[in-house]
Amino acid sequence: MKKISNTEIIKDILMNNLIRSEALKLIVIPILISTVIYSILEITISNRLKELNAAVEMKSGEISALKKYVIQILIVAILTEVNGFVFTSVVQYIYRTMSKSSFRLFVSLPPAQFNKFGGGEIQTIIERKSRSASELIEIFVTNLLPIILKISFTLFSVINNMGSFAGYIMSICVFIYGALTIGIAIWRANIRRELNKAENSTCNKLQDSLINHETIVTSRTVEYEVQKYDEYLMKNENISTKLWRAFYVLNLFQRIIFLLQSSLIIYAGLLGYLYYDLSPSQLLFLTSIVATLANNLGNVGYLYTRYTQAIINARATYDTISEIKEEIKDKELYGFKKNIKFSKIFFNYENRKVFENVNFEIKKGEKIAIIGKNGSGKSTLMKLFLKFESYNGSIFIDDINIQDIKEDSFRNLIGYIPQNTFLFNETVKYNIKYGLENVTDEEIFSLCKKFCLFEVFSNLENGFDTNVGERGKLLSGGEKQKILLMRAMLRKKEIMILDEPTAALDKESEKNIIELILEDKERTVMMIIHNLELVNKFDTILYINDKNIQKFKPELVNRQDSGKDFSEVVDIKI
Q: Where is the ABC transporter domain (predicted)?
């Protein structure tokens, strides 16, 4: 796959976040105009200083010249800070919108694609893309553009006041200054990476020693551990010294360049190469404008380091996101009418075959119990139907391949309760009605009463407003499972996929809840169960065994050991 270039990344960020945004244009265009104005004014402060000096020498118009000088400095200061004050909202807005769009991209991925990424990896990608986009825009608009403008206006002003030869000298010095600064910045960046690795190693060594404190004390190896830790610290010390020495070397060379620049221009004036003979006013002008230029070029190294880091982060995220293929799906489903078909399904998990040429059909309204040994593929079968895993073969709903159905249309048909009960760090009520903002409290209470769960939630510390904690850690397994059940039932989906939804419930609650789930004749249910006492409540059994699936009626299951987990009972009469 062709990698996107740095230029294309920058163009994409600027186009999508600034140029194509009408709202941001209303802010950015005035900021750009203001930047041009204050850049011109900042450079021409040297002219005002020159005029002030001449007025003082002539003892005429000193107050007027001083007013112009002070007012111009004040205007530059105000425009500079107002630009930053206003543009920071643009930077933060871009950070937010990039985070939002990246988050939407990942959470809207089909699970099969989503599962290719780790949670930490996704978090890092979102953070890096958002930060790199906002930083690159900030660098170009508020840092690089003013520097380019001020260099240009400085050269123009020097040529206008002192001649083209002075401008030629200054141009060469600015070029050498920039090249040297960027070169040393690259050198320091490599040292910084080396230091980061050394600091990580030192931190790991420190953690290792602290964790094994008792072993160190009982083994009487305190001095040995201190010596080992000091070896890591010495490496950090040497690299840090090298890093800071590079900084001071850079400062020295920058000072030398500006010294040579001023000296050469003054020497050229003494030799008569400038427009006018050198005067105190011109020397003051030169000193002032060189100081202004030095002040603006002082952050070039830091700016280049920021740019390099931002473009590295942007490239990493763009390369990753470009690998995400957006599949075009055009089929809509407005309801479930006939059947679900699994046709020639093959699925491998890593190097292990799970399903081999699986074929079966489920009719609308059919209640299916899925049974089989632990690890046989019961949960996997559900994940294939839910498009959580990639597979070979075809699965159809009403003769339409599920891979061709639009995601929203497909998900709108299905209610799902996973085996692992993860909840949001919110209230019980929030978790039950999640995604259904128009549902009233009365509807929630009524549903819970129907399933005899109203008192379960009411008796919690704050009733339905009780916070469940991170991933529901403040609730028992049974309470978490009941919340997921209520969430699924509240949606009233035509197809219900239930992965051991009652595993954490007592036998009586399990029996009552399953009867209520199965009572709707129009609802199609696929449920994994382990308790053989429950199979007679279903229309059909899917038995998963030896990479295949057998379908039969409940009465063919030998329930002489009813009540046991199915992993212990595999005697089935067909």
A: 340-571
Which of 275, 296, 322 is the endpoint of a domain?
A: 322
CA terminus-to-terminus distance, the chain: 52
CA distance 453 to 440: 17
Which has more pLDDT, 422 or 244?
Answer: 244
pLDDT at 569: 45
Label residue 561 by pLDDT band (50, 70, 90).
very low
**Neighbouring C-beta atoms of residue 335, cutoff 10 Å:** 9
Phi-psi region at 471: left, alpha or beta (left = phi > 0; alpha = psi -120 to 50): left
Confidence check: pLDDT of 330 > 70 = no
**pLDDT recorded at residue 517:** 85
Portion of the chain with pLDDT greater than 70, in percent: 94
Best CA proximity match to 409, nearest among 393, 380, 387, 431: 387
Distance, in Å, from the CA atom of 503 to the CA atom of 530, rounded to the nearest integer, reads: 8
- Report the CATH number at residue 542: 3.40.50.300
Q: Are 284 and 53 in contact (CB under 8 A)?
A: yes
Average pLDDT, the chain: 85
Confidence of residue 455 (pLDDT cuts 50, 70, 90): confident
Residue 531 is given by DSSP the state B
Whether the model clears a pTM of 0.70, i.e. scores above it, the answer is no
**Chosen domain end from 255, 287, 322:** 322
Please say whether the beta carbons of 371 and 378 come within 8 A.
yes
**Alpha-carbon torsion angle 504, 376, 380, 561, nearest 10:** -30
Statement to judge: residues 299 and 431 lie in one domain: no
Q: Which pLDDT belongs to residue 568?
A: 46
Same domain, 253 and 343: no
pLDDT surpasses 50 at 94:
yes
For residue 540, give the H/E element and its range. strand 540-545
Place of tokens 């112009």: 68
Q: Name the token pair of 19.
A: 């140029």
Domain that holds residue 209: 6-322
| Residues 115 and 238 grouped into a single domain | yes
Structural domains of the chain, count? 2
Q: What are phi and psi of 295, to 5 degrees?
A: -60, -40
Do 175 and 305 lie in one domain? The reply is yes
Answer yes or no: do 246 and 357 share one domain. no
